[in-house]
Amino acid sequence: MGELRGTHVPVLLERCLELLAPALDRAERTVHVDATLGLGGHAEAVLEAHPRTVLVGLDRDTEALAHARARLARFADRIHLEHAVYDELPDVLDRLGYPAVDGILFDLGVSSLQLDAPDRGFAYAQDAPLDMRMDQTRGVTAEEVVNTYSHPELARVLRVYGEEKFATRIASAIVRERERARITSSARLAELVRESIPAPARRTGGHPAKRTFQALRIEVNKELAALEAALPAALDRLTVGGRMVVLSYHSLEDRLTKAALADRVRSTGPVDLPVELPGTGPTFRLLSRGAELPNEVEVAANPRAASVRLRAAERLDPTAEQHRRTDRERYRRRVRAMHQPGTGSAARRPAPGDGTGTDEEGEGHDD
Ligand SMILES: C[S@@+](CC[C@H](N)C(=O)[O-])C[C@H]1O[C@@H](n2cnc3c(N)ncnc32)[C@H](O)[C@@H]1O
């Protein structure tokens, strides 16, 4: 294991600790899952702040795990570090004998270790073999994607995962170039992307290859499929009062997170009843008002935080008085909305983020 390149400052660390504390402080022994251990920055702070908390840390990157293991060595008697993709969390918890947990953190995306590594191919700014696998022990590389996917497949990956408006032009340039010679380096790919987009577009929105590299990374690691499966599975494992915090770095991750949480904070019962029917009430409440953004101080101290979006939720006690009060208030809001001019008499189930639904029910921290 080499020296760590650069420094990794855990993103929104204080806010994550603040959100997780009520869940981790409330019992003799609590269990916290760090689903994206990385270099162990968030995990170390949780272990320091909660001396009775056991940590289950997952990462699909063996190099990250090795660094985290060294960093967390002094907590060896209360950590389990596992080489796993986070959608394997239920299997990991079953194997370790933890049917339920109290805290879960997802800090998505790549670590500074991966970005800065000269041999991993994640960064468009330095030349490296086109690998981009977070888990270098398995799976296809970015080189295989770039050199074997059909033109329509490449264009789809760039458009959907990179939100790249010049996806077709870039895919055409890649296909033309690989007929001449196999594309094997990140510098060659970055150059091809730069050449294939119109000159005025090169001057806006950061490095022209940024979106292509993001798209390839997501495709290579099947990131969105893993996240879509992992979030509901993780929520299922939280105890009453247990809390989950998710840090996303692009809109696709944040959309999946928002949808997974919206599913749990919404009632499934008939909207025109004043009480919830058994088993139809919300099972979680949001702790964040919409997606929380970093403040200027955080971004100045840690440029990686610039694109972060934080969402958090807590599992509700289905028998709690506070919960029943929330339900009745929600019911009154629905009735009021039904009687507003222009809304008609048809009751509409509130949707997340529409001002009548889940987003207004967070604790409302705006920092
Ligand atoms: C942003 S870093 C986490 C940094 C960490 N919070 C810290 O303070 O050091 C994200 C980590 O998640 C890992 N990762 C990304 N997707 C994963 C997945 N599907 N399953 C497991 N680990 C994943 C990456 O390998 C990377 O090490």
From TrEMBL:
<protein>
    <recommendedName>
        <fullName>Ribosomal RNA small subunit methyltransferase H</fullName>
        <ecNumber>2.1.1.199</ecNumber>
    </recommendedName>
</protein>
<feature type="binding site">
    <location>
        <position position="114"/>
    </location>
    <ligand>
        <name>S-adenosyl-L-methionine</name>
    </ligand>
</feature>
<keyword id="KW-0963">Cytoplasm</keyword>
<dbReference type="InterPro" id="IPR002903">
    <property type="entry name" value="RsmH"/>
</dbReference>
<feature type="binding site">
    <location>
        <position position="86"/>
    </location>
    <ligand>
        <name>S-adenosyl-L-methionine</name>
    </ligand>
</feature>
<keyword id="KW-0489">Methyltransferase</keyword>
<feature type="binding site">
    <location>
        <begin position="40"/>
        <end position="42"/>
    </location>
    <ligand>
        <name>S-adenosyl-L-methionine</name>
    </ligand>
</feature>
<keyword id="KW-0808">Transferase</keyword>
<keyword id="KW-0949">S-adenosyl-L-methionine</keyword>
<dbReference type="Pfam" id="PF01795">
    <property type="entry name" value="Methyltransf_5"/>
</dbReference>
<comment type="similarity">
    <text>Belongs to the methyltransferase superfamily. RsmH family.</text>
</comment>
<feature type="binding site">
    <location>
        <position position="107"/>
    </location>
    <ligand>
        <name>S-adenosyl-L-methionine</name>
    </ligand>
</feature>
<comment type="function">
    <text>Specifically methylates the N4 position of cytidine in position 1402 (C1402) of 16S rRNA.</text>
</comment>
<keyword id="KW-0698">rRNA processing</keyword>
<feature type="compositionally biased region" description="Acidic residues">
    <location>
        <begin position="357"/>
        <end position="367"/>
    </location>
</feature>
<feature type="binding site">
    <location>
        <position position="59"/>
    </location>
    <ligand>
        <name>S-adenosyl-L-methionine</name>
    </ligand>
</feature>
<feature type="compositionally biased region" description="Basic and acidic residues">
    <location>
        <begin position="313"/>
        <end position="330"/>
    </location>
</feature>
<feature type="region of interest" description="Disordered">
    <location>
        <begin position="313"/>
        <end position="367"/>
    </location>
</feature>
<dbReference type="InterPro" id="IPR023397">
    <property type="entry name" value="SAM-dep_MeTrfase_MraW_recog"/>
</dbReference>
<dbReference type="InterPro" id="IPR029063">
    <property type="entry name" value="SAM-dependent_MTases_sf"/>
</dbReference>
